[in-house]
């Protein structure tokens, strides 16, 4: 009786060409997926940034409710010697620390360190950037013409009071206080500019839309001092 020859255990190995094809397919998939993953992470960080600003907006509303609708001082310009939204009196902004934000007007309403930092804003930090990534609009004190902050209810609902932006050195030392003119700012730490408005809403504005408003000579969401024809 003839014994059958078993083929069990006989395996055909991959050829070098087949292995190279598999590696090429994997590399192609990685090249396709990595940008999508990076974009998803960037979008998630922007959502977190908008949520941070929304929380700051709630703190501003709570503050104004306690102070007859007055907004806090913005740590800026001629009224910089007043306790402001970000830090209090005696803080050396050139040598400040993250803990100095605890001296500001909003800290008792928002005692959350991470909320003051855009997740895409990575160190090293200089000046007031050690305390926060966000900048208040100097329109709160009429860009220096007023000795007291305006009331929250005086602003149009879509008037931008806070943004995530990078201050530019052509107008002075960047991040040297807690507020600025709109013209001092360029898009911040995302592809879009994240903003918080007087009604507490937040938005991500494209750079082209931001620059169109920032560089306009007319009153708009950024140049928004109430009662001023050009918003300034």
What's the short version?
The protein is an alpha+beta fold. The protein has helices at 16-66, 207-214; strands at residues 134-137, 160-167, 179-180, 185-187, 193-197, 202-205. The protein has one domain.
Describe this structure in words.
- With 232 residues, this protein is an alpha+beta fold.
- It has one domain.
- 25% of the residues lie in helices and 11% in strands.
- It is built from two helices and six strands; from the N terminus they run αββββββα.
- Strands 1, 2, 3, 4, 5 and 6 form a six-stranded mixed sheet that branches.
- Strand 5 (193-197) and strand 6 (202-205) form a beta hairpin.
Task: Give descriptors for this structure.
6 strands; alpha+beta; 25% helix; 2 helices; single chain
The mean pLDDT is: 87
Largest sheet: 6 strands, mixed
Subunit organisation of the chains = single chain
Q: Please report the distance between the alpha carbons of the first and last residues.
A: 106 Å
Give the overall silhouette: elongated
Query: Structural class of the secondary elements?
Result: alpha+beta
Strand content: 5-15%
Please estimate the helix content: 25-40%
- Which blocks of ≥5 consecutive residues have pLDDT under 50? none
Order of helices and strands: HEEEEEEH
The total domain count is: 1
Number of helices: 2
What Rg is obtained from the alpha carbons, in whole angstroms? 26 Å
**What is the tally of beta strands?**
6
């Amino acid at each position: 009786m003839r014994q059958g020859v078993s083929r069990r255990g006989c395996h055909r190995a991959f050829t070098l060409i087949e292995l190279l094809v598999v590696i090429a397919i994997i590399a192609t998939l990685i090249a396709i997926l990595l940008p999508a993953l990076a974009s998803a992470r960037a979008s998630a960080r922007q959502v977190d940034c908008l949520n941070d600003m929304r929380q700051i907006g709630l703190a501003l509303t709570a503050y104004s409710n306690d102070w007859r609708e007055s907004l806090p001082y913005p740590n800026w310009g001629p009224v910089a010697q007043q306790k402001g939204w970000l830090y209090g009196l005696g803080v050396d902004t050139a040598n400040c620390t993250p803990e100095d934000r605890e001296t500001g007007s909003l800290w008792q309403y928002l005692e959350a360190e991470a909320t003051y930092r855009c997740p895409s804003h990575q160190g090293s930090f200089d000046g007031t950037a050690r305390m926060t990534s966000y900048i208040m609009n100097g329109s709160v004190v009429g860009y220096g013409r007023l000795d007291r902050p305006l009331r929250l209810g005086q602003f149009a609902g879509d008037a931008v009071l806070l943004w995530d932006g990078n201050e530019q050195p052509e107008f002075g030392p960047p991040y040297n206080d807690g507020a600025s003119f709109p013209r001092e700012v360029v898009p911040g730490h995302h592809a879009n500019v994240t903003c918080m408005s007087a009604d507490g809403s937040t938005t991500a504005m494209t750079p082209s839309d931001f620059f169109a408003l920032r560089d306009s000579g007319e009153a708009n969401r950024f140049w928004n001092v109430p009662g001023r024809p050009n918003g300034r």
